[in-house]
């Protein structure tokens, strides 16, 4: 019985997050009310706040699920022996596409993940979600880390390189690029990310990898 109740709670939480994201994707975060989400998810407002304290928490919950799906796919490919660079290209292409498609939601996600407080007094400033923001940041870093570990195992990264720190730095750099880059399409995002990736990874690459120019498109 306890397991069934937990499954019901998990299913309801997922339904709320999915319904909220679909509304946010169409109209933006500020235009959607808690009542709109409750109606779309077929729950009461009381139940809504039982699962999520704010709209940003709902947005991050759905975003984390998408990131986790990408990580599962990347891990499956790596375990099957795929080239880490090809896996990396697929991961970044998907994230870049999402960043452009839902650019009107990037600010709320970025501020939560990077821990930046909303501008004081600015109308419609996104709600903060410190706990969930940290969890989302860790989820993103966990998406990047397996690819870097695979590169390190192949001798493409220096053995002493701190992969965990590199993962966090790359996530922060990529989010900042989306927040401030003004990209028009996925190709521009990928080009910007490639430049930042090259800069951050230069000192971590094994010397022979640098000589081969492995960071080039």
Essential attributes:
217 residues, Tetracycline Repressor, domain 2, 0% strand, mainly alpha, Arc Repressor Mutant, subunit A, 2 domains
Give a topology summary.
Elements (H helix, E strand, L loop, with lengths): L1 H26 L6 H8 L3 H7 L3 H25 L4 H18 L1 H12 L15 H24 L9 H18 L5 H16 L5 H6 L5
Helix pairs in contact: 1-2, 1-4, 4-5, 4-7, 5-6, 5-7, 5-9, 6-7, 6-8, 7-8, 8-9
Keywords: DNA-binding, Transcription, Transcription regulation
InterPro entries: DNA-bd_HTH_TetR-type_CS, Homeodomain-like_sf, HTH-type_TetR-like_transc_reg, HTH_TetR, TetR_C_44
Organism: Deinococcus soli (ex Cha et al. 2016)
What's the architecture of the largest domain in CATH terms? Answer: Orthogonal Bundle
What portion of residues belong to β-strands?
under 5%
CATH superfamily of the largest domain: Tetracycline Repressor, domain 2
Largest sheet: none
Structural class: mainly alpha
The CATH topology of the largest domain comes to Tetracycline Repressor, domain 2
What global shape is seen? globular
Radius of gyration: 19 Å
CATH class of the largest domain: Mainly Alpha
Distance between the termini: 53 Å
- What share of the residues lie within helices? over 70%
Secondary-structure element string: HHHHHHHHHH
Domain count, please report it. 2
DSSP strand tally? 0
- In round numbers, the mean pLDDT is 85
Q: How large is the count of helical segments?
A: 10
Low-confidence stretches: 117-126
Domain HTH tetR-type: 10-70
Protein name: TetR family transcriptional regulator
Pfam families: TetR_C_44, TetR_N
DNA-binding region: 33-52
